[in-house]
Amino acid sequence: MVKVAMVQMDIEFGNPAKNFSRVGEALEQAKDLGAEVVVFPEMWNTGYDLENLPSIADRDGRRTKTLVGQLAKQLSLNVVAGSVATLKDGRFYNTTYTFDQTGKVIAEYDKAHRFGPMQEDQYVAAGNQPANYEIANLKSASLICYDLRFPEWWRTAGTKGVNVYFLPAEWPTSRIEQWEALLKARAIENQAFVIGVNRVGDDPNNHFNGHSMAVAPSGEVLANADEQAGITIVEIDQTAVQEAKQLFDIQNDRRPELYR
Ligand SMILES: O=C(O)CCC(=O)C(=O)O
C-alpha cells in the first residue's frame, strides 16, 4: 500500500511567491497526514497568467527544484509537483517535475496537448515525450490536464508498463462531469490507477471546483475530493493492476496495425 496525497489548492493568479509558500505548507501538512507521494495541480506557480510569463515563469524550473527538492528531501517525500510554467531555452512550457525522497528530479514532462480556449497554444511550446518513471515503487507516468482527452497518448505512455497515471489539472467547473467520466474511462481502458488533481477557486476566466479523484483499474472511485481546498489521502495497492489483467490484458490484446 502506498499513501498518496492529492493537494487540491487555490492558486493566486500571477503570484508565484504566494503559491510557492502555499505549496511548502501543503508538503508539511501532507507529511503529517502520513503521505508517501504528494501530488499538486496544474500551473500552480502562476495560474494561467500567460501574458505575464516573461516575468513570472520559472527559469529552467530552478525555483521549483530548489523549494520542492529541499522539502522533498527534508520531509522524505516523493512529489509529483503538479505542473509549473517554465522558461527553457527561450520558450515557455507547462512542465511537471517529479521528485524522489532525496529531492532529486527523476522525471520531467512538458504538456503535449495545449488547450486552445485558454490560448495556451499561443504562449506555450508543446512537449513531445511521455514521462515514465518509478516512484515509491509505483510504475508511473505523468500527463497534464487537456492530455486527458487523448487516449492515444495514454496508450503510448502505457506501452512501457504503467500502473499509476498522475494528471495535474486546472479543469473548469463547467465541464466537471466530463472530467469525472474521462478519469474513469482512462483508468478502465488502461487497467491502471488514475490520480487526477484539480484546483479550486477562480481566475479571470474560469471557476474551478476541484473534484480531484483517484480511480482504481476497475473504475471504482477510491476518493473524490469534492469542492473544498484540502488534502485527500488515498491508499494504492498496485496488485490490483495485476488482478485486473489476469482476466484480460487490454494492452496485450491491442492490434496497432488496425489503428491508422
Ligand atoms: O479539456 C478541458 O476541458 C480542460 C482542459 C484545460 O483546462 C487545460 O488543459 O488547462
Automatic annotation (TrEMBL):
Pfam families: CN_hydrolase
Protein family: Belongs to the carbon-nitrogen hydrolase superfamily. NIT1/NIT2 family.
The name this protein goes by in its record: Carbon-nitrogen family hydrolase
The entry's keywords: Hydrolase
Domain CN hydrolase: 2-238
InterPro entries, sorted: C-N_Hydrolase, C-N_Hydrolase_sf, UPF0012_CS
Domain of life of the organism encoding this protein: Bacteria
Molecular function as annotated in GO: hydrolase activity
Lineage: Bacteria, Bacillati, Bacillota, Bacilli, Lactobacillales
